[in-house]
Design a protein that fits this description.
four-stranded antiparallel sheet, about 20% strand, Chloramphenicol Acetyltransferase, seven-stranded mixed sheet, single chain, alpha+beta, elongated, about 25% helix, about 450 residues, OB fold (Dihydrolipoamide Acetyltransferase, E2P), 21 strands
Length: about 450
């Protein structure tokens, strides 16, 4: 019997949430068959099996959080001798005892983000490739796990409705909730964190007391008072993505002395070029042509001229990279993610447009792979997409620079010959880590980017 453990799905990832099990005990398993779907603060991915055989016991039910390296399930490997059955105890077991002879599984681990409910079908995700998702092999025997339980009631053997994880117990204590009153959505009726959090946000209404005959007969002297408000505020449960964003931004602000500067660029020629090409491009390439791939191409050219911004901190060491691996900030319903266009400097505008469209679509669908979010050397943020004309971005740690493309707007502009013309103008904002470079290099980079944008026609 082999044990499948939680892999590390990305840099700095310490835990993951089981969204759904794709195999159940007794199901046949082939090599690389997806066993379950795992959600972390960076990606959502299927976990492929490194074994061939039969699915064994599920140790972490859907909806629970597990740290990296924790046992998730067991697989009876093909060709291995089955484990000997435990010796039967002396004496006959009573029917009630037999009903509860199966140990509780999936005790879970404390902490972690709110997960997608087990009864909500998640999106289909591509099977991860390479060795980055392959779990470490573990000994045949899984480590002992201590479930938290309260007086199991008689029921069928797979009834887990009264076994609670430490995280569920802690959350219930904090809010004074009787877990016996909740209907669980997990495996075997198990109450999950999601169930408790949903109960906290939307508690059931208390049934009104039955009036006494005297009270019922008395005439109403005034209108009934309106129902009392639920309270002056409600607690917002942060998703795994939002928690990671918060931690990274705090770290970036604390560790990096950040400076900010801005220039405005006349992008009239760029806007006109995009208008001429967008219909043909849509028909030929199948994706929309926006200003972003043109802007990203200009950023890559500027980084080649000023490579001190194409760098990352690795501990106390500042590494300047030759490859231009550009992070593209994407605002999604589940938070801001920054997938990376690897080798962006080697792509044409058409190649960038297709690559950006692909990663943005997969980011919204939560189908990014681990390699899609790692290794960025510089970040581009299209804040103009939601109408912003100026912004102060925070450097994406451990990088040293981030640039924003603001909204292009028509404005009257005084030309060099003192004539006034209506032009498309765009503000370009740069935040940078002052430890890695000074204002001179940052200003030169931004000026070079401005000239490259203005030269497009």
């Amino acid at each position: 019997m082999a044990t499948v453990t939680m892999p590390q799905l990305g840099e700095s990832v310490t835990e993951g949430t089981i969204i759904a099990w794709l195999k159940q005990p007794g199901d046949p398993i082939k090599l690389d068959d997806p066993l379950c779907e795992i959600e972390t603060e960076k990606v959502t991915a299927e976990l492929p099996s490194e074994y061939e055989g039969t699915m064994g016991q599920i140790l972490v039910p859907a909806g629970e959080v597990a740290p990296v390296g924790a046992p998730l399930c067991e697989v009876e490997v093909a060709g291995e001798a089955p484990a000997p059955a435990p010796a039967a105890p002396t004496g006959e077991a009573t029917p009630a005892a037999a009903a509860h002879a199966e140990p509780a599984s999936g005790g879970g681990w404390s902490g972690g983000p709110m997960a997608i409910p087990p009864d909500e079908p998640p999106a289909s995700f591509p099977a991860p490739t390479g060795n980055g998702h392959e779990p470490a092999r573990r000994p045949a025997a899984s480590p002992a796990r201590e479930p938290v339980a309260t007086a199991p009631r008689p029921g069928k053997p797979d009834d887990r409705s009264r076994f609670y994880s430490p995280a569920v117990m802690r959350l219930a204590r904090e809010h004074g909730i009787d877990l016996a009153a909740l209907t669980g959505s997990g495996i075997g009726g198990r109450v999950t964190r999601k169930d408790v959090e949903a109960y906290v946000q939307h508690p059931p209404e208390t049934a009104p007391a039955t009036p006494s005959p005297t009270t019922a007969a008395a005439p109403a002297t005034r209108e009934a008072a309106p129902p009392a408000a639920a309270g002056p505020f409600e607690t917002v449960t942060l998703s795994a993505t939002r928690k990671t964003i918060a931690a990274n931004l705090v770290r970036s602000n604390l560790e990096a002395p950040q400076a900010w500067t801005m220039v405005e660029a006349d992008v009239t020629g760029l806007v006109a070029l995009r208008e001429r090409e967008k219909a043909h491009f849509q028909q030929q390439e199948g994706v929309e042509l926006t200003l972003l791939p043109y802007f990203t191409a200009a950023v890559c050219e500027s980084l080649r001229a000023f490579p001190m911004l194409n760098a990352r901190w690795e501990g106390e060491e500042l590494r300047r990279y030759h490859a231009l691996d550009i992070g593209i900030a994407v605002a999604t319903d589940h938070g801001l993610v920054v997938p990376v266009v690897h080798g962006a400097g080697d792509l044409s505008v058409a190649g960038l447009a297709k690559r950006i469209a692909d990663i943005a679509q997969r980011a919204h669908a939560r189908r990014l792979r681990v390699e899609d979010v790692e290794g960025g050397t510089f970040t581009v943020n299209n804040t103009g997409s939601f109408g912003s004309i100026a912004s102060k971005p925070i450097v994406n740690h451990p990088q040293v620079g981030i640039v924003t493309m603001e909204r292009a707007v028509k404005r009257p502009v005084i030309r060099d010959d003192d004539s006034i013309a209506v032009r498309w103008m765009m503000n370009v904002c740069l935040s940078f880590d002052h430890r890695a470079l000074d204002g001179l290099e940052a200003g030169q980079f931004l000026t070079g980017l401005k000239h490259r944008l203005e030269a497009i026609s």
